[in-house]
Amino acid sequence: KSTTVYMITKILESSGANVAAIGSLGFKIKDKEWPNTLKQTMPGRFRLQKFLAEAKKAGCDFVILEVTSEGIKQYRHLGIKFDTAVFVNIHREHLENHGSFENYLKAKQELFKLTKHIHVLNADDPRITEFNKFTSEKKITFGINQGDIRPTNVLASESESEFNLDGQKVHLNIGGVFNVLNALGAWAVASAHGVEAHVITEALSKIQSIPGRLEFIQKRPFSVIVDYAHTPDSLEAVYKTLKPANGRLIVVLGACGGGRDKWKRPEFGAIADRLADDIILTDEDPYEENPCQIVSEIEQSIKRANHIEIIMDRKEAIGRAIAMAQPGDAVVITGKGSEVSMAVVGNKKIPWSDRDIARLAVDKSN
């Protein structure tokens, strides 16, 4: 969702529109940008309405909002008249909070019930029927395999991708098939609002990276990537995209605390065990939980005895992974992406940046 919000914002700005945006990547009103330090993607109602008022006062034509199931459950969306709703994909997440996957799905569907003008839907996602059943004035589907907006000649490596669409050859400076899908979703939104294909193409090609989303800190002699992956599906997709043909995949991972989605922890371990060559388990956002217990729950599904280390100091863990990398390897640091704080015991948030720490470790290794 964050990547799609970012892409839509850049495309609409390239078309000459004034744009505001809210999401886990941060806040933006026209040229003014600031980080999201709330530890929640979608702000509370009063903060959100204040933001919308400021965006209107600043003369913004569009607001791109990353809507969350948690936000809908807590009625943070009340009072907003949505023009366009985009379905990118859905993974199992926030199950403790919602009580079941069905409740989680219903929260997501609420956005499409409320949005009457345009629905943009990922036709490649197996759950499209769960979102396609709500009425809207206009529906646009997109996908690599099917959909109204469907590209040809799709090529995707770990660090870039390209495709042909609507007479344009599109080049993305970000890799992964999932990012091609994100770009198609953004394309659908932009075209629905009258942006021409050549403008969309140029805007997408100018994006050098998405902060904390498959973000390359270094590409050679070995690659170092920071990514927000925090569901089993996204973790697996990132690992498969980045696994070198002739090198090792070195992974640094943990899991969020605070009772959030404990079921994910052993799944993370199993995915890392299956796809990674070297695993370093570490602290992430423990909140009030014991960090060692969180890591233990990830470790329980890792069957190997070798090529696994537990380094609870996250800075040290990132440094260790980068120090052990050889030419051709890929070091992947997941879980926090572009976040600027870590949630620890005592309801505290300490300043934190995986990206900055990785850059310092890279400089040291060079």
Concise overview:
The protein is α/β, with parallel strands linked by helices and 366 residues long.
Structural classification: alpha/beta
Number of strands: 18
Which geometry do the CA atoms define?
globular
The total of helices stands at: 13
What do the pLDDT scores average to?
95
What does the largest sheet look like?
6 strands, mixed
Rg of Cα set: 20 Å
Unreliably modeled segments: none
Major β-sheet strand ordering: 11-12-16-13-14-15
Work out the helicity level: 25-40%
Give the N-to-C terminal Cα separation.
34 Å
Percentage of residues in DSSP E strands: 15-25%
Essential attributes:
366 residues, alpha/beta, six-stranded mixed beta sheet, four-stranded mixed beta sheet
Question: What would you say this structure looks like, in words?
Answer:
- By secondary structure, this protein is of the alpha/beta class.
- The chain has 13 helices and 18 strands.
- The protein has helices at residues 2-14, 45-57, 69-73, 95-98, 101-114, 129-132, 177-192, 197-206, 232-242, 264-275, 291-299, 314-324, 354-365, and strands at 19-23, 26-29, 32-34, 62-65, 84-87, 118-122, 138-142, 152-156, 161-165, 168-172, 215-218, 223-227, 249-253, 278-281, 308-310, 330-334, 341-344, 348-351.
- A 6-stranded mixed beta sheet has the order 11-12-16-13-14-15, with helices on both faces.
- A hairpin with a 4-residue loop joins β11 and β12 (223-227).
- α1 (2-14) packs across α7 (177-192), α1 (2-14) packs across α8 (197-206) and α12 packs parallel to α13.
- The longest helix has 16 residues, at 177-192.
- It is globular, with a radius of gyration of 20 Å.
- The protein starts with a helix and ends with a helix.
- 44% of the residues are buried.
- The mean pLDDT is 95.
